[in-house]
Amino acid sequence: MSDYDFDLFVIGAGSGGVRASRVAASHGAKVAVAEEYRVGGTCVIRGCVPKKLLIYGAHFAEDLKDARRFGWNVPDCDFEWTTLRDNVLADVDRLEGLYKNTLDSHKVELISERATITGPHGVKLASGREISAKYILVATGAWPVIPEIEGAEHGVTSNEVFHLEECPKRIVIVGGGYIANEFAGIFHQFGSHVTIVNRSNMLLRGYDEQIRDRLLQISTMKGINFRFNAEMEKIEKNEDGTLCVRFKGGDPIACDLLLFATGRQPQVQGLGLENAGVELNGKGAIKVDEYSRTNVESIYAVGDVTDRLQLTPVAIREGHAFADTVFGDNPRTVDYHCVPSAVFSHPPLAGVGLTEAQAKNKYGTVKIYTSDFRPMKNVLAGRDERALYKMVVDATTNKVVGLHMIGPDAPEILQAAAIAVKAGLTKQEFDDTVALHPSMAEELVLLK
Ligand code: NDP
To answer: Which residue's C-alpha comes closest to atom 46 of ligand 1?
Structure first.
């Protein structure tokens, strides 16, 4: 008999926490997971999943227009936000049910309460119940950051945006990262007047410059407005419920909704980490080693609460590796080399490996191959929107060290190509593969 109530107590039933719980249980551990809100975490409840469904919904705006060029008699169509919203939220409920079933079928005890750490092996639930566990895993994710601006309480974040009563006629989105660009595309397609307000003049820091520039060009062409180097002063709410965003310099912007998309910070407040002496890093994230272990031997952390990559598949891998290491007698670390990522903007972009600038820094000389083309479908649709694929090659070894693309289905194509980049294949090996014609992806093996 164990001296503890559980072998593993997980705090947070998001992507990382659920995977860790399930795998640890399948290795024979007695597991409980505490979740104060809903099972599924950011990805399932208020992130990747509902966002992607809205992206699908938004795409119909252009598809319906383009369909006419392909011979379809499409009448003028209206968009009804509440129908899409309710269908999306119903699907989120369905997925939450599946996640709960998974925990249940693996005999993981789900405790729908907030848990606080009381010591290296102790947690206390909101109800007052005290529980002991041999290991504790913190998987509490991250939470949107709201800049300190007067009137910031009038804005919403990605937490609330899926539940809006109506689609805003005018929306201001603060930030120039993932969420800002994704929701700019979504609301623009739904017919909102969209303005992105960014503190610097750079969108999507970390992505290749040419690809970012192409997104800005296409977004501008579509009618999304940008205000760069903007310092917000305050947000005022008018009597009719509309908002006025004021800047230090520059005209105010009137809108119906203001969305903050200004990054996400690790969720550590009130967790009781200090009771066990768990250390944080300079950014307020839990400090962990390569096995996701904190400075306290019995406490681990995975996912966005640690300062690694804020991506769902990464959290899942960290959770899985943790469970295999601690309960499966199979010590494993996560390989962060060549993690592909995508922004589901309109059009989407995706990348893996080094950008041109990063590769030049690392290798000195690099070869760049690009294909700047108008996808066939866009040509017939009369849509003047070009895709851009870019390959970064180490000039000494001819290995492909980076691949970046923007255009229809870019994330779908890049996922497959990322395998080749991660495997360290050369430009010649890409060229040796016969093109699959006609496709957009064939550009990858025809780059000059
Ligand atoms: P990002 O880190 O992508 O972007 C944050 C943006 O807000 C940047 O433009 C940043 O500017 C700006 N910013 C940061 N702080 C402030 C501030 N105090 N005032 C004004 N502007 C500020 O964050 P998101 O919120 O868009 O997304 C959070 C994370 O979630 C992402 O980093 C990503 O890891 C994940 N995510 C992933 C998605 C995907 O995989 N498709 C989709 C959505 C989210 P600057 O560049 O100057 O720092």
So the answer is: 205
Tell me: do 316 and 375 sit in the same domain: no
Quote the number of domains for the chain: 3
Q: What is the pLDDT along the chain (448 residues), one digit of tens a residue?
A: 579 999 999 999 999 999 999 999 999 999 999 999 999 999 999 999 999 999 999 999 999 999 999 999 999 999 999 999 999 999 999 999 999 999 999 999 999 999 999 999 999 999 999 999 999 999 999 999 999 999 999 999 999 999 999 999 999 999 999 999 999 999 999 999 999 999 999 999 999 999 999 999 999 999 999 999 999 999 999 999 999 999 999 999 999 999 999 999 999 999 999 999 999 999 999 999 999 999 999 999 999 999 899 999 999 999 999 999 999 999 999 999 999 999 999 999 999 999 999 999 999 999 999 999 999 999 999 999 999 999 999 999 999 999 999 999 999 999 999 999 999 999 999 999 999 999 999 999 999 9
pTM of the complete model beyond 0.85: yes
Using the atom order of ligand 1, give the atom closest to the CA of residue 344.
Answer: 41
* First and final C-alpha spacing in the chain: 66
| Ligand 1 neighbours by CB, cut-off 6 Å | 147, 174-180, 182, 198-200, 202, 205, 261-264, 310-311, 341-344
Residue with the nearest Cα to atom 22 of ligand 1? 262
Q: Which residues are catalytic?
A: 437
Same domain (yes/no): 303, 288: yes
CATH number of the domain where residue 372 is located: 3.30.390.30
The atom number, within ligand 1, closest to the CA of 311 reads 34
In a shared domain, residues 93 and 128: yes
Cβ contact 272:116 at 8 Å: yes
Give the ligand 1 atom nearest the CA of 147.
Answer: 18
Domain of 248?
152-262
CA distances from 402 to 61, 73, 86, 320 (A): 33, 43, 40, 27
Q: What is the CATH number of the domain that holds 173?
A: 3.50.50.60
- Ligand 1 center to 189 CA (angstroms): 21
Does 438 lie in the same domain as 302? Answer: no
Q: Which amino acid is at 235?
A: I
